[in-house]
Design goal:
Elements lengths: L2 H8 L18 E6 L4 E7 L5 E7 L4 E4 L14 E9 L4 E8 L4 E8 L4 E5 L16 E6 L4 E6 L5 E5 L13 H9 L18 H5 L5 E5 L5 E7 L4 E8 L4 E4 L17 E9 L4 E8 L4 E8 L4 E5 L31 E5 L5 E7 L4 E4 L8 H119 L1
């Protein structure tokens, strides 16, 4: 599409057929700064020239509509393209599914007869069904207490309201969820991403203050992406806008054959070098063709790799760029061990390393090595912390195991001691039981003897009683005989 055709197309009204998916169109983005909330935003250009703003939400890890009444465009009924209407039991009202050409989303609205405006709602239980979309000019009729309105579509499919009471049928502003949020919570001043676990070694925190928070880039595959810098990772996160849903997705971890997100030596174009007292090393100012930024690097002769640094006192001076040379970046202190290394440019002005070879008596180009950018440093630092934490966990586990083993030994000793005490107690109990048994035996013998004595005494007592009874009986008989004898003698006399 030519520039003239793009301009003429942007002046055409937005057209939509009910039930259809969003029509792909040329998306134009612009980065802005909200003067009130002090944050960077991105604006999506609408065909009529208006802008719909998004802001990055750290908590949700995506872009969301910018909540600012000063920045947001006024959305009216002409921006809504109704599909169909349903009854919602939860709110006891009719809900209209309408596509918003500003947000590129299918949204839900109810009509307020009090304000004579549409109000956006969010009812998750109502799921949009493309097959329910109605056709024709009339969508529905709504009956209020003193008014009846008819919801129609104009020639482009946009919403049109006709009232049988009020003569004013002009398109009115819509009360969106974003505006309701502003009315409820007010405007919130944005806060920077907090970074508490990253050191300022090599000037990283100073460096990030010089970077733009947002970037808009288009790769060779003509894919436009929004890049958001993350202080926690030291790199830009990549997001793509999905026009079918009006939302953003994080594509930082998705491979694109036409994109590259890893800085390598082939992207570094050296400008000039300068000595840094703070680092006690020579710093090379390079243009990074991948990020389009001017970056600072030092050379590590032990790894033959470039490492990113930032010295804020070494302000880049474009006038110092010398296309002919790079001011001889050498390491004489390492000549004995590693040989002299010179940093230069190749025929494509890309950075290269040359090392003197004693064998060939000439400088040999060294192979490329991975570049240690701040993102790599942060990842290594995080990995180091994770390794240290893991090591601490291992040591703690070993210490706990030692303590556990010691406790087990102590418990075993205590168990042995308790076992010994229990055995001694059992022995004493057994001895006591034996003594008790012996005493019971002795008592049983005594009881038997007593029983025998009692039996003998009872027998003797019974014999004595019988003897006494016999004596009494004999005495009675003798007395009787005596009386009889005396009677006989008396008779004889």
């Amino acid at each position: 599409m030519s520039v003239s055709s793009e301009i003429s197309a942007s002046k055409l009204p937005y057209v939509r057929i009910p039930g259809s998916k969003p029509v792909p169109r040329l998306l134009k983005w612009t980065i802005f700064k909200c003067s009130f909330m002090k944050i960077r935003t991105i604006g999506l250009h609408h065909p009529d020239g208006r802008l719909y703003f998004f802001e990055f939400c750290q908590g949700k890890d995506t872009f969301v509509p910018h909540v600012c009444s000063a920045c947001l465009p006024i959305i009216t009924e002409k921006d809504l393209f109704p599909d169909y209407i349903v009854w919602a039991e939860e709110i006891e009202d009719y809900v209209i599914f309408a596509f918003s050409s500003m947000s590129n989303k299918m949204e839900q609205f109810v009509y307020s007869f009090e304000t004579r405006r549409f109000v956006e709602v969010d009812l998750p239980e109502l799921v949009y069904n493309r097959g329910d979309a109605t056709t024709g000019d009339i969508v529905a009729a709504l009956y209020g207490e003193n008014e009846t309105i008819v919801i129609e579509r104009d020639e482009n499919g946009a919403m049109l309201i006709r009232s049988f009471v009020h003569k004013d049928n002009s398109r009115k502003p819509v009360n969106t969820l974003v505006m309701q949020n502003i009315e409820k919570n007010g405007l919130q001043v944005g806060k920077d991403e907090e970074v508490t676990d990253i050191s300022n070694e090599f000037g990283y925190l100073d460096y990030v203050e010089t970077l733009p928070e947002l970037k808009i880039k288009t790769c060779s595959a003509n894919r436009t992406s929004i890049h958001v810098f993350s202080k926690k990772t030291g790199r830009y996160l990549k997001y793509h806008y999905v026009i079918n849903t009006g939302s953003f997705i994080n594509t930082s971890n998705l491979d694109c054959s036409n994109c590259n997100s890893v800085t390598s030596e082939k992207y570094l174009l050296p400008e000039y070098s300068v000595y840094s007292k703070a680092l006690d090393a020579r710093v090379i100012h390079c243009t990074n063709n991948l990020t389009s930024d001017i970056e600072q690097y030092t050379f590590n002769p032990d790894t033959n790799a470039f490492e990113q640094v930032y010295c804020k006192e070494l302000v880049y001076d474009p006038n110092r760029f010398n296309r002919a040379s790079l001011a001889a970046y050498v390491f004489p202190e390492n000549v004995a061990n590693n040989g002299t290394v010179i940093i230069s440019r190749d025929v494509y002005e890309v950075i290269q390393k040359e090392k003197y070879s004693i064998v060939t008596d000439e400088y040999v180009v060294l192979p490329a090595a991975p570049v240690k950018t701040f993102a790599v440093r942060i990842q290594e630092e995080k990995q180091k912390k994770l390794d240290e934490e893991e090591q601490q966990k291992v040591l703690k586990t070993q210490e706990l195991e030692k303590q556990k083993d010691g406790q087990i030994v102590i418990m075993e000793l205590e168990m042995k001691e308790m076992t010994t005490l229990l055995e001694e107690k059992d022995t004493r109990i057994k001895m006591h039981v034996e003594k008790h048994r012996d005493k019971e035996c002795e008592l049983e013998l005594v009881r038997r003897k007593l029983d025998d004595c009692v039996v003998r005494m009872q027998g003797a007592f019974e014999r004595d009683i019988k003897l006494e009874e016999a004596k009494v009986q004999a005495s009675r008989e003798a007395k009787k005989q005596y009386e009889n004898l005396m009677t006989i003698l008396g008779e004889k006399e």
